[in-house]
Amino acid sequence: MAVERSSRYAQPFPSYDGNAARQLERVDDRKTNVQRRRHPSNQTNLRTREPGKLSMFGAIGFLVVVAFVLLMLASYANLVAVNDTAVGLKQDLETLKVEESKLLAKYELAYDLQSIEQEVISNGTMVKPSVSQIYMLELTEPDGVEYYQKSDLWNSVITACNQVLSAIQTYF
Sign (positive/negative) of CA torsion 13, 16, 20, 26? Predict the structure, then answer.
């Protein structure tokens, strides 16, 4: 039960006529139903802007773009000012470091250690060690100074009372 095919499909290649070049078919303009495009002025619901007027959205968009450009220029100006300030501060820092090293050298030269040693030895606060004494420096502990002052009983009682009063004040 083979169904007959239409005459269009009867040949294996319907457009092949023995020539490899395809023959162009003529299209008759009269047969095709081509709609012509209407000109926009013929449509009644289309509104156009008059040539001399400016669009509201266009004006607002232009103002927004101008505002952003001005903000960008202002931020670049601020960036340049901050950069100039940073460069100036770096130069001031370098100048201050040089000045610090000069002042430290002057400070170290201002004190004569030999004269200080002679003065302290002469008033009796520092005593030169005798030959029989042996001094050993223990460098395992951190540096520190303890100053012991001779005090009598009355000064120690006053100091203890002051400590007790300060402890009471911290709680109240």
Answer: negative
